[in-house]
Structures are given as C-alpha cells and as structure tokens.
Amino acid sequence: MLYLVATPIGNLNDISLRALETLRSVDIIASEDTRKTGLLLKHFDIQKPQLSFHEHNEERAGQRIEELLKEGKSVAVVSDAGTPGISDPGFTLVRRAVNAGLDVTMIPGPTGCIMALVLSGLPVHSFTFRGFPPRKAVGRRKFLEIDKDSPHTLIFYESPYRLADFLRDALEVYGDRPAAVANDLTKMFEKVERGTLSTLLASIEQSKLKGEYVVVIAGKDKKDRHTEEQ
C-alpha cells in the first residue's frame, strides 16, 4: 500500500494519531528531505528507513517506490511540511501507482493554503489554488493574467525574496482588490495581514521577511465584471 501522509506545517502537535500510526507501521518512508523528516521521526521516536523522494529525482525514485510496492512493501510519502502533492512531489507517484493498479490512500492533515484561505476573511465557497508563480516578472504577469476575470478567491504560495514583486504585479494585473498575506502558520509568531493589495504591499516593503508566504486574493467582483462588459 502507498500512503500519502500529511505532516505539520509548523506546530508538531498538529500531527494526527493516524499519521503517527501509519509512519510507525510502514516498511519505508519516502521523504522530500530525509534530514527534516529525520527530525520529525526522532521527535516522535519513530525509527524507519528513509528513501529520498524530491522534485529532482522524482522519476527515478518513483520507479523504485513502485518496485517496492510490487514486492509487497508498504511505503509512506511525506513532504517537508503539509500535504504531499500540494506544491510538493507526490502527483506523479500517485499517477504511477494508479496506472500500475497498486493500492493508494492518504492520511489527511495540515495544508497551508486551506488554513490561509479560512483565516483570510475572503469567500471560501469557491477558490482556485495556483501554487508558486513563475520567478521572472514577464512569466509571473502572464500567470496572473489567466485568472484576471475569475470570480473565485485565488491562493498563491510565494517566497520572501519575491513577495513584494508578486504583490506589485498582482496589484497591476488585478487592481486594488481585498487580499491577505499569511506567514508562520501554526507557529509561535503566526501572522495574517488583511487589507488591499496596495496596503499589504506597503506593509511588506517595510518588513523583514522570512519563511514561506501564502497570499489570498479576492476574485473579481460581479459589479466590476458587469461594468467592463458595458
């Protein structure tokens, strides 16, 4: 059986009993970063062999995991934090296992995009998760343009090194929409800033940034769409 196991995004107490039970029972743990996962396993006194599985060896490691599953071994896949497959390796392995007729299941748990969405105060009934945008400005603007007329709340991940540039481009493409920026979710210094893209940009430009950020942006307002159509 292949298990995709969600792990804490910050606070280790968020790990589920079922996740711990699974990690203790499988034969092998496939980890995005064996060192980081090693710290998690040590904290919960779990001793299991690890296999490196990340974006740079996804094809080769995926083939090895498939072989192990066909041998009757059980494998748990974990990312550095959160849910495997959500802006982390996992999708290709699930597809590989499904195509091979192998059993796959998931141990659900933390994911930063959903937590940020709920805490943003923006509509949650319909949303689009867009993951990490392109690093370069031209590609980033084209990426943002795709959802310019979307009515759905938009969710993005961004690094501290490009957050200001991202907000600047989002402001240019979408206009000054309501938005929220979340950082250090579930940790001691958890922070969610809410406002408009312009006020958030002004705040970010004056702050020291670190860690991974989640940006939530309101979808296009129906009144705005109606005005443009006229």
TrEMBL record:
Entries under CDD domains matching the protein: RsmI (cd11648)
E.C. code: 2.1.1.198
Molecular-function annotations in GO: rRNA (cytosine-2'-O-)-methyltransferase activity
Domain of life: Bacteria
Domain Tetrapyrrole methylase: residue ranges: 1-200
Main subcellular location: cytoplasm
Catalyzed reaction equations: cytidine(1402) in 16S rRNA + S-adenosyl-L-methionine = 2'-O-methylcytidine(1402) in 16S rRNA + S-adenosyl-L-homocysteine + H(+)
Family matches, as Pfam families: TP_methylase
Keywords: Cytoplasm, Methyltransferase, rRNA processing, S-adenosyl-L-methionine, Transferase
Function: Catalyzes the 2'-O-methylation of the ribose of cytidine 1402 (C1402) in 16S rRNA.
HAMAP family in alphabetical order: 16SrRNA_methyltr_I
PANTHER family associated with the record: RIBOSOMAL RNA SMALL SUBUNIT METHYLTRANSFERASE I
Protein name as annotated: Ribosomal RNA small subunit methyltransferase I
Recorded name of the encoding gene: rsmI
